[in-house]
Design brief:
Elements (H helix, E strand, L loop, with lengths): L1 E5 L3 H12 L3 E5 L3 H8 L10 H11 L2 E4 L10 E4 L14 H10 L8 E4 L7 H11 L3 E4 L9 H6 L4 E5 L4 H10 L1 H4 L5 E4 L1 H32 L3 H9 L20 H14 L8 H24 L6 E5 L14 H11 L3 E5 L4 H7 L4 E2 L3 H5 L4 E4 L4 H4 L3 H5 L6 E4 L6 H6 L3 E4 L4
Parallel strand pairs: 1-2, 1-4, 2-3, 4-5, 5-6, 7-8, 9-10, 9-12, 10-11, 12-13, 13-14
Antiparallel strand pairs: 6-7
Bound molecules: uridine-5'-diphosphate-glucuronic acid.
The site of uridine-5'-diphosphate-glucuronic acid has 21 residues, from helix 9.
């Protein structure tokens, strides 16, 4: 099937290449000429495991092309809208790119073609867009995505579920999506057909739930730390209850990235606008608990060093999570910057996110080599749980630093091994 994907950022580029990999003819459209040039040459503009391969395979097969010209999407049967919905100053979602993408596609829309929203939008957005699309002879559906960075290809080709939001009575839209996703559906995952508003809400509700789960365990961490209890054992124990589940109960410096923080704020803004602010007021607390974790690391560093001014601190990890070079709203980058602002001499490292971090925080002292970042440190802080940091040998690292003090901001290090090697080991939520 000939399809187009408007927006070739993280979501759109992965979606375009994934759809080409299951046999569709795909054109990815974006206004950013540099991004289009880079993708057309097989150079991913971001780090995502497995993406390079499907990008190159798509280009080689001739089924995947990229363009800055919306006219190149004219003969597509399905147009995906996969542009960003960044946070505005007041916390609400900025829909300018969604509107611009719809404006770009409408003049080229074939009669009966389907526009499918994938972007995360405030509930009611599809209802606002639909009349313009109907008037142009097209139809609108909403198909939220649930992909995680680091697992983006896998989550696109074998998702937990597919959700189609369609207008009342538009069985043809669902049938068209079934045809498009036949390969994905052959793996047997559930497919849920809803109305447009439900599909929009499903996405924000899922992210709100995940954020709440993380902040719940982090609130337990605050108490556990105070009373000398261990939040990781607590998470293991409650996680065995299948109704609760152990996943997303990892306490630490909290959630960041381009989705969870902005989505809970946009959800509150939209609910408030609709008169349902009270229903999601708890998300404000979820946000505050999350941000307090960052304060706690800065305070703990100060406590362990008797003040951070002039002290050498090695920060391990800058990305908002491992297997990503994304530093948007990254707790790690925020903490590194705050320690530097408080007068610490911070040396920061990350296997993949130094260049992205440098673009937003050029003032930080970045060390691509881990040993170089660790050398002479009075305190080591692990903030992103990359495999190479989890696997560090406490004895070897002790030989590089000036002070054997470590804060495990993700509760992933072997505390007993560090203590046995002479380290003062502190973790969030473990007294
Ligand atoms: C999130 C959702 O998990 C996806 O389902 C969704 O599609 C995506 O947002 C989106 O809206 O596009 P992502 O932002 O890639 O995906 O990252 P997550 O894996 O959800 O992690 C978010 C943050 O929570 C990270 O900073 C991670 O370190 C933190 N986290 C996660 C914890 O602090 N504890 C946990 O137990 C799990």
């Amino acid at each position: 099937m000939k399809i187009s994907v408007f927006g070739c950022g993280y979501l759109g580029a992965v979606h375009a290449a994934s759809m080409a990999s299951i046999g569709h003819d795909v054109v990815g459209v974006d206004v950013d000429a540099a991004k289009i040039a880079s993708l057309s040459e097989g150079r991913p503009p971001f780090f995502e495991p497995g993406f390079d391969e499907i990008l190159q395979a798509g280009l080689d097969s001739g089924r995947l092309t990229f363009s800055t010209d919306a006219a190149d999407a004219a003969d597509a049967e399905v147009h995906f809208i996969a542009v960003g919905t960044p946070q505005s100053a007041d916390g609400s979602a900025d829909l300018r790119y969604v509107n611009a993408a719809v404006d770009a596609v409408l003049p080229h829309l074939a009669e009966g073609a389907l526009i499918v929203g994938k972007s995360t939008v405030p509930v009611g957005t599809a209802a606002e867009l639909a009349p313009r699309i109907d008037a142009a002879g097209g139809r609108l559906a909403w198909n939220p995505e649930f992909l995680r960075e680091g697992f983006a290809v896998q989550d696109t080709l074998t998702p937990d579920r597919l959700v189609y939001g369609v207008a009342a009575g538009d069985d043809a839209a669902a049938a068209k999506l079934d045809e498009l996703y036949a390969d994905v559906l052959s793996h047997g995952m559930p497919r849920i057909v809803t109305d447009l508003a439900t599909a929009e809400l499903v996405k924000v509700a899922a992210n709100a739930f995940l954020a709440t789960k993380i902040s719940f365990i982090n609130s337990m961490a605050e108490i556990a730390e105070g009373v000398g209890a261990d939040v990781t054992q607590l998470a293991d124990a409650i996680g065995h209850d299948a109704r609760i589940g152990r996943r997303f109960l990892n306490a630490g410096v909290g959630f960041g990235g381009g989705c969870l923080p902005k989505d809970i704020r946009a959800f509150q803004a939209r609910a408030t606008e609709l008169g349902y602010g009270d229903s999601v007021a708890f998300l404000g607390e979820v946000d505050r608990i999350n941000l307090r974790r960052r304060d706690r690391v800065v305070d703990l560093a100060s406590e362990m060093l008797g003040g951070v001014e002039g002290r050498r601190i090695a920060v391990l990890g800058l990305a908002f999570k491992p297997d990503s070079d994304d530093v948007r709203d990254s707790p790690a980058l925020d903490i590194a910057s705050r320690l530097r602002e408080a007068g610490a001499l911070v040396t920061a490292t990350d296997p993949h996110a130094i260049e992205t971090a440098r673009r937003v925080r050029p003032e930080l002292d970045f060390r691509p080599d881990t040993d170089d970042a660790l050398a002479g440190a009075d305190l080591v802080i692990l903030l992103t749980e990359w495999r190479e940091y989890r696997d560090l040998d406490p004895e070897t690292v002790a030989g590089l630093v000036s002070g054997t003090r470590v804060i495990d901001g993700r509760n992933v290090l072997d505390g007993a091994a560090y203590r046995a090697a002479g380290w003062e080991y502190r973790a969030l939520g473990r007294g």
